[in-house]
Write a structure and sequence with these properties.
With 154 residues, this protein is an alpha+beta fold. It has a single domain, classed as 2-Layer Sandwich (Alpha-D-Glucose-1,6-Bisphosphate, Chain A, domain 4). Helices cover 29% and strands 34% of the residues. Strands 1-7-6-5-4-3-2 form a 7-stranded antiparallel β-sheet. Strand 2 and strand 3 form a beta hairpin. It is globular.
């Protein structure tokens, strides 16, 4: 069970590909959509909202909505969103979003990709533990997904 006092999820993975290749997989909206399983309406643009529809089986009824915060090619990419916002009847817009950050660094033989999603302490208490637990598991899967995608699409 997730510790409800935790504020952040942190993951990292080594990917056998150059930083520029991993950067493209993260920041090109079509490539991001392929491994994350979301059909985005357009490119990621710093300071703008990103919209789309989730394509992950069982979650196709959900919309993707994030605000791109920072794109510092090829080392840092961040966006905010509402974690585990899975009830289509609920309006999450009044909640404080979490911040998702990716850092890329060159390592011998490839790229070290680090992820941090922070701000869970501001998620309403009624759904905080579940949002943390589900996103922790989700990010573990997504880090594997992006590595596999880059390996299959050099």
């Amino acid at each position: 069970m997730a510790d409800e006092t935790q504020d952040a999820i942190e993951k990292e993975i080594e990917i056998a590909a150059p930083v520029e290749r991993v950067w493209r997989a993260l920041t090109d909206h079509e490539e991001f959509g392929a491994w994350f399983r979301v059909k985005l309406e357009g490119p990621f643009v710093e300071g703008q909202r990103s919209m789309g529809r989730i394509t992950w089986p069982g979650y196709e009824h959900l919309l993707w909505e994030a605000e791109v915060k920072t794109m510092e090619r090829p080392r840092y990419f961040s966006f905010t969103w509402h974690p585990y916002a899975v009830d289509p009847a609920k309006d999450y817009s009044g909640e404080e979003p979490t911040l998702v950050e990716f850092w890329l660094s060159a390592e011998q033989g490839g790229t070290l990709l680090k992820l941090r999603e922070s701000g869970f302490s501001k998620v309403p208490e009624a759904r905080r533990a579940e949002a943390f637990r589900m996103n922790a598991g989700g990010w573990a899967q997504q880090m594997t997904n992006v590595a596999a995608y880059v390996g299959e699409h050099p």
